[in-house]
């Protein structure tokens, strides 16, 4: 009875405090008010008002309609329950515990759940001994965040080390894995400087907080890691499907200095038969480093260059930094129109903020103002008309030269006039971490307005939670070292878990210059990562694929070619990511939870989708053998198709080989090598069948560039296989969508065979060939339901 009285009194107190809208749970302890809402059966939003008055309900990461969603709940003695979880609250301390339906604890507050420090706050949760922690984007350190402490403050960190923190991004989201109640996620939706500590400061205490701003966070119940990631991207948004060319090999340098040099790079790549889809232009293509300009002496006909390269299947992506040269009375249109529209940030005294960056004295757009974003997006029209295919927003932490903080003063004024925020001025302390994301939002939305039927491609260095809706990203100015090769794998995996499935690390390292062996191994591993870009600084040795002679060129070409062979599989993973949020590149435990307890060092192992496992050397610089642990269920060697029976394999590192395995039960689509994704592959689509339990695969295709796929212009087909009665049966489901594919035949390759066997399609005999432990049957394209049997 006393607990019910407390709840009634708490509800009355909340009404007195002015909280008008109903909540699934409300309580008060002293001056502190707590509110919990169930957005879905698995997602809870928790807000705490230390003075009893809740701040504005607005978010840079979670859309209004998402925040407003509710599901049915049932009141309990100490909280409430949904169809999936139960919430309990201690009325004295407001400590929250989340349980699954069986009563297992998913996540629980510490006995001292919250502390206030001026305008800042700290939240503390229990940290079970068996729990591991992942996420926070591309922070340095080990893949597992346990034992680490991290700061969320977007910072330009040229040549960062493997222990540098903070870095370029703030993604205040992490996943707890391995607890009694399964995986869960925590997203702190606060744009101020934040911090996360996983038992480093206090043993067995998980703590996080911010220097200012709202106590507003989300708990996401799994129980699997995959469910947590999917629900997190339900909250913050899915990455849109990129144009197919964005999945090809991309060559870059800071900088290719002239149009002739760019043409020479493209010509050499084609002459050496290195498949390539993109060449990047860094800042030196511009006039005096000024955005939206071109150095016409070095690039006298940028449109002609773009057209010439496009004819060979190579796209141009150009950098456009956000700092606009402060150039009054010089005829520099971005500055003149920006001043006329009042689009630049202001000092505390109201004057325009000016600071040095690449163009010299520069001004900075006010991206939290929707009108400014619309102006910025329109500036891309000239480049889009020229034929530039994609854009690169760099330096958007924002980076400022000649200042110890590396960024602008915290009292610089921004105008917030967007989304469901009440219009107001805000300081840079509040806006800093979302500034880069709003920069890319302006670019992305501008490109979509200019070419609404084309897929926009934007790359960013700085971002915030939800930035995956607008841009792909990369890990910034890394080093040419074996240490950074390993770090890049761990960074990309945590980015994928943090919503950024499309991520890259500069292959070969940006600073320093890689050795021949390092560049070759990095290209081999990079070929299995989501965005595959080689990039190096201008003061480093050249790092194009051919620089170390024909032996290394052949190995690098082989790795790049394999990516293009896998393009049908990779592209299907990209499309699935747009629908589900599942990362393209994943830690092994994402699909195989038992891998967390495997007795192998898996710090360099990862999967591409669930079907391919890349078992890189955990000490990539070492020739010493290492062990690979394969999850239960059976695997095949990707390179020769042989069945691998052992659960643990001893691997001796070799420069010419990267161990890759295929999950038994996979149907993997592949194609002939092309020199770019714009080239039609020769011959049939290949369906490589690796018999095993729950054997299935999917074909997906569309035109690779327009938005026709959202209107039905796609092809999707499920394919299943089974083994029994001395035969392998492959069943094709009827296709969905209206897109007509490039292939006219299908080559079905069944691995793990000892003879060709007899094949029938729909009961009619077809020819089967045997080679290398596989039976191959080439049949006409199957758009309707059909059955192929091999006895």
Strands, helices and their partners?
Elements: H1 2-16, E1 25-29, E2 32-38, E3 43-49, H2 64-67, E4 74-76, E5 79-81, E6 85-89, E7 96-100, E8 105-117, E9 120-126, E10 132-135, E11 149-152, E12 173-177, E13 184-188, E14 194-198, E15 205-210, E16 215-221, H3 225-236, E17 249-251, H4 259-271, E18 278-281, H5 302-310, E19 315-319, E20 324-325, H6 333-341, E21 355-357, E22 360-363, H7 370-378, H8 381-386, E23 390-393, E24 413-416, E25 424-427, H9 428-450, E26 458-460, E27 472-474, H10 482-497, E28 503-504, H11 516-526, E29 532-534, H12 550-565, H13 567-580, E30 585-586, E31 605-608, E32 612-615, E33 626-629, E34 635-637, E35 643-644, E36 648-651, E37 660-663, E38 666-670, E39 685-690, E40 695-702, E41 714-724, E42 727-732, E43 745-751, E44 759-761, E45 764-766, E46 769-771, E47 774-780, E48 786-790
Parallel strand pairs: 17-18, 17-29, 18-19, 19-23, 23-26, 26-27, 27-28, 39-43
Antiparallel strand pairs: 1-2, 2-3, 3-16, 4-5, 5-6, 6-7, 7-8, 8-9, 9-15, 10-12, 11-14, 12-13, 13-16, 14-15, 20-22, 21-22, 24-25, 30-31, 31-32, 32-37, 33-36, 34-35, 34-37, 38-39, 40-41, 41-42, 42-48, 43-47, 44-45, 44-48, 46-47
Helix pairs in contact: 7-9, 11-12
